[in-house]
Write a structure and sequence with these properties.
14% of the residues lie in helices and 23% in strands. The protein folds into 2 domains: 79 residues, LysM domain (Membrane-bound Lytic Murein Transglycosylase D, Chain A); 113 residues, Glucose Permease (Domain IIA). The radius of gyration is 20 Å and the shape is globular. The strands form 3 sheets. Strands 3, 4, 6, 7, 8, 10, 12 and 13 form an 8-stranded antiparallel beta sheet that branches. The chain is built from 5 helices and 13 strands. By secondary structure, it is of the alpha+beta class. One of its GO terms (molecular function) is metalloendopeptidase activity. Pfam families: LysM, Peptidase_M23. InterPro entries: Cell_wall_metabolism_enzyme, Dup_hybrid_motif, LysM, LysM_dom_sf, M23ase_b-sheet_dom. This is LysM domain-containing protein.
């Protein structure tokens, strides 16, 4: 089961993934999906639409034991294979910018560019962790109906280029997998927000370490599910992913 589904089914874990308690129980579906408790007035069609899947996939999942869409009642626990939570609302500032200035598509073959100095801090307190063109925006859907929870910043082949902390804070997680985010770092900042830096080729910090804004924490790579060197960058505020463009300079 992908780690994103563990976070979605246990949102409290996202806040402190390194502070799991002995005996703490987690909701972990048997497949990538959402565990849903049916409420009064729910219909299978409404549930499927809300979690962006079709009704048939819920009916076909054997453990749900649903004879027909009309037999769903309050209190039932269903597994929604492939379901994803609805995206968080786009901040008003971003909605206004996107409405008046739609993002142009990136050029098909951008010319390589030298790695610039880290930009100065923005008024929101975050800086760009890496400078490059955005190859995939927040909220875009991928294969399998997967919701994109961050920005992909193209490295233009600059494998090993420096990645810096977007704001000062404490490293709360350093992990590596053969899928998904690959090798990644999570940093918690003084205001409680968190940033995630993924697909790294190298990590230069350890869990529990304090880092300053602009300090190099890793290097561009292509680990995990990746089609070319780039940085996947996430910003979490209040336990939910938000569009980093609303908070970057």
């Amino acid at each position: 089961v992908d780690v994103e589904y563990i976070f979605w089914n246990n949102p409290e874990v996202r806040d402190d993934p390194d502070l799991l308690l002995v005996g703490e129980q987690l909701l972990i579906p048997s497949v990538n999906g959402i565990i849903y408790h049916v409420k009064l007035g729910d219909t299978l069609s409404d549930i499927a639409s809300f979690y962006q899947i079709d009704v048939q996939s819920i009916l076909a999942f054997v453990s749900n034991d649903i004879a027909s869409p009309d037999t769903v009642i309050e209190g039932m626990v269903l597994v929604l294979p492939g379901g994803v939570p609805p995206p968080p609302p786009i901040p008003a500032a971003v909605a206004a910018v996107e409405a008046t200035n739609p993002e142009p598509e990136p050029p098909p073959e951008p010319a390589p560019e030298p790695a610039p100095e880290p930009p100065p801090p923005a008024s929101t307190g975050y800086i760009w962790p890496f400078s490059g063109s955005i190859s995939s925006h927040f909220g875009e859907y991928r294969g399998g109906n997967s919701y994109h929870m961050g920005l992909d910043i193209d490295a233009f082949g600059r494998y090993g280029a420096p990645v810096v902390a977007a704001a000062s804070g404490t490293v709360v997680l350093v992990a590596s997998t053969d899928w998904g985010l690959g090798t990644y770092i999570a940093i918690r900042h003084p205001d409680g927000s968190e940033t995630v830096y993924a697909h790294l080729s190298a990590v230069y910090v350890g869990q529990g370490q304090s880092v300053g804004q602009g300090e190099q924490i890793g290097a561009i790579g292509c680990t995990g599910y990746c089609t070319g060197p780039h940085l996947h960058f996430e910003l979490w505020i209040g336990g939910s992913p938000v569009n980093p463009l609303a908070y970057l300079p």
